[in-house]
């Protein structure tokens, strides 16, 4: 499983555009992933820690 954190402000807003392309490829190839688009640094940390704890 892959984890992605996308900052929608990154790259002058191009990050979301690029993410949508990447996401289509992941879905087409049936690659397991989870993504967090936006949110604060606290939300990103919680997103990661929750997934790490689930794997233990």
Describe this structure in words.
54% of the residues lie in helices and 18% in strands. It has a two-stranded parallel sheet. The model has no long low-confidence stretch (mean pLDDT 89). The protein has two helices and two strands; from the N terminus they run E-H-E-H. The protein is of the alpha+beta class. The protein starts with a strand and ends with a helix. The chain has one domain. It is flat, with a radius of gyration of 12 Å.
Beta-strand segment tally: 2
Order of helices and strands: EHEH
Q: Which strand order do you get reading across the main beta sheet?
A: 1-2
Number of domains: 1
The end-to-end span amounts to 14 Å
Taking the sheet with the most strands, its summary is: 2 strands, parallel
**Helical residue percent band:** 40-55%
Mean pLDDT: 89
* Rg calc: 12 Å
Report the principal-axis shape: flat
Protein topology:
Layout: E1 2-6, H1 14-28, E2 33-37, H2 41-55
Parallel strand pairs: 1-2
Keywords:
flat; two-stranded parallel ribbon; 2 strands; 56 residues; alpha+beta; single chain
Short précis:
The chain is of the alpha+beta class and 56 residues long. It has one domain (2-55).
